[in-house]
Amino acid sequence: MNLACQRCGRSYLARIQFKTGNDCDQYTPGQRVDDLPTDDFWEGIALRHCPPCHAEFRRERERAAADVLAAFVHDGRLALRPTRSAGST
Fold first, then answer.
1. CA-to-CA distance for 71 and 55, rounded, in angstroms?
2. Taking the model in full, what pTM does it have?
3. What angle do CA 18, 46, 19 make, to 5 degrees?
4. How many Å apart are CA 30 and CA 40, to the nearest integer?
5. pLDDT in tens, 27-66
6. In terms of domain of life, where is this protein from (predicted)?
7. Are the C-beta atoms of residues 57 and 49 closer than 8 Å to each other?
8. In what order do the strands lie in the sheet with 23-27?
9. d(CA 54, CA 58)
């Protein structure tokens, strides 16, 4: 389905995931879906950002997490140590 990116406003072709009862499945754009019950409640979810904005969102989230970890180390609330190699005890 075409959705407007909530970050940049551009239209993009979104993949929708439907959930019905205990079943969960993904459908690709243009795929005909005949097995959704017509007398049942169902929900669909999709990413709210177009692929380029979603990639930037992920980069920003990873940078923020790294900044928080760096602040914890700097403040002495977290100590980092190297991992042991496979042969070490």
1. 25
2. 0.60
3. 15
4. 22
5. 666 777 776 667 777 677 888 999 999 999 999 999 999 9
6. Bacteria
7. yes
8. 23-27, 16-20, 42-45
9. 6
